[in-house]
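Before the break, one more example. Copy the sequence into your notebook; we will annotate it together after we see the structure.
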Amino acid sequence: MDRIRVASLQYFIRPITSYDQFRDQVVGLVETAADYKAHLLVFPEYFTLQLLTLEDVRRPIRKQIHTLARQRDRFVELMSGLAKTHGLYIAAGTIPAYGTDGDTIHNECSFFGPSGAHTSQSKIHMTRFEKEEWFVQSRNELRIIETEFGRVAITICYDVEFPELARAAAREGALILLVPSCTDDRHAFLRVRYCAQARAIENQMYVVHASTVGSLPMVPAVSLNYGVASILTPSDFPFSRDGILAEGIANQETMVIGELNMKTVLESRDSGTVLPLRDSQASADVKKAIEVVTLA
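Here is what the structure looks like once it is written out:
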């Protein structure tokens, strides 16, 4: 599959009074992506925190996160059914998930294929509020996902700020990097966005960034949201002039859609104006040869 259409969400989180409201919002967005003939739809990190407004939000946030983790199976069933019904790939944002011990909580993004089958990628680097207040724990495995249109990897929000993850994925043949994020202010958003754009350039890959917008004033860490969804490209002649294939307007509820030419990104790795992915080996050699010199 040489050309694919991708859709990335600026998902508006708002208080709800029933699970059906949440389901209807999700279903409507998937149906919209399908109407626009998207092959891949990306939801943002922690958009599922919307479900916390169905519970007692005065409880300690750690207890609320465990309540949300118990909703994961129903959430996975919903997304699996939608992927199968509409025949598209869905990166389903993130939802807290229990570890194998039944008590540890991880931040997990499930990725669904058109058959409804799925795998998952957990967040590897935890932000301070996740680690210190929510007691969400990291995992250390990066998965490379085979699809009909090539290999895909997922770096969840803060993870994209660590270039070695995307570089490892690119060296394993990943052509698309998905970045579901949840950021509260412009500073936080720009940390993710600037790093996402750098990952596209240095690895000669497409990056699809999804963001939360809206607010849940009663839920810590998502009481505010600042976000812009985007589809980013390498910075070279065959691609978008500014390395931005598509982007939304800050903090508006929307979906951005663009077409990716998989053949073009592959060719750029062999014949681009510069070859940062191939030439990165030189940087590795320099790192091995680093010498620290002290002058009095």
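The longest strand covers residues 3-13. Residues 3-288 form a domain with the Nitrilase/N-carbamoyl-D-aminoacid amidohydrolase fold (CATH 3.60.110.10). Try to locate both features in your own notes.
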